[in-house]
Amino acid sequence: MKYRPDFPNRHVEIVEYDDRWPAMFATERTALRAVLPTAESIEHIGSTSIPGIPAKPTIDILAVVPGLEDARASVKPLAALGYQLRSKAFEDDDHHLFFRKVKHRQRTHHLHVVAEPSTAGDEYRLLREYLVARPDVAAQYGRAKLEFAARHPNDRRAYLDDKHAFVEDLMSEARRWQAASQR
Predict the structure, then answer these.
(1) Prior bond to 5 cis, omega within 30?
(2) Dist CA 129 CA 131 (whole Å)
(3) Which domains does the chain have, with CATH numbers?
(4) Treating both helix axes as pointing N-terminal to C-terminal, what angle do 156-181 and 135-151 enclose, rounded to 10 degrees?
(5) In whole angstroms, what is the distance from residue 72 CA to residue 64 CA?
(6) Strand, helix or coil at 62?
(7) The whole model's pTM is what?
(8) What single DSSP character describes residue 63?
(9) HSE-CB for 11 with a 13 A CA cutoff
(10) At 114, which helix (H) or strand (E)?
(11) What sign does the dihedral 56-6-81-74 (CA atoms) show?
């Protein structure tokens, strides 16, 4: 599952962890609950959900819905909250819709709405759980993101390509960690 951004190259901004991020997520979750009544869960994911690590100042959110119809029905209500559907972001997963929320030309939120049979929700959760359980690995990930941003300060695609390769390795580690913990 590789994110395919459909936006021009832009400045890459990675900032130190902000203690306000969990509260910002909680506020947004309340708004999302009102427009996604069938959502089985609405969760904070991504780097802003990992205490202490640097991240893009964009709150990543996962909403799991029962089916593709529920995901598609969410487009108009989410637009009313300011979310823009990015239809080509995950072309390899027909059950994964990606939205972004922009305020003052800055992305404030990314929303992943997933339905069965997408495995994206499980992957996002696993990575979050692994990084929370392994602060040493989370710190390494944070340092890598800062390095990638320094290497590609004005090329978001190149930054995302480097980050994607790193995350693929992290996911392999996370799967081994999960398997070992289930024994």
Answers:
(1) no
(2) 6
(3) 21-181 (3.30.460.10)
(4) 170
(5) 12
(6) strand
(7) 0.90
(8) E
(9) 7
(10) strand 106-115
(11) negative
**Ordered alpha helix ranges (H), the chain:** 21-35, 68-73, 75-80, 120-133, 135-151, 156-181
Contact (Cβ atoms closer than 8 angstroms) between residue 111 and residue 63: yes
What is the band of 89 on the pLDDT scale with cuts at 50, 70, 90?
confident
> For the chain, how long is the longest CA-to-CA vector?
49
168 C-beta neighbours (distance < 10 Å), count: 11
Which two tokens mark 92? 């390899």
d(CA 52, CA 183): 30
Instruction: Please give the average per-residue pLDDT across 52-77, as a whole number.
Output: 92
114-170 residue pLDDT tens: 998 889 999 999 999 999 999 999 999 999 999 999 999 999 899 999 999 999 999
In what order do the strands lie in the sheet containing 106-115? Answer: 41-45, 59-65, 106-115, 96-103, 83-85
For residue 47, CA distances in Å to 6, 18, 55, 67, 70 come to: 21, 11, 5, 27, 27
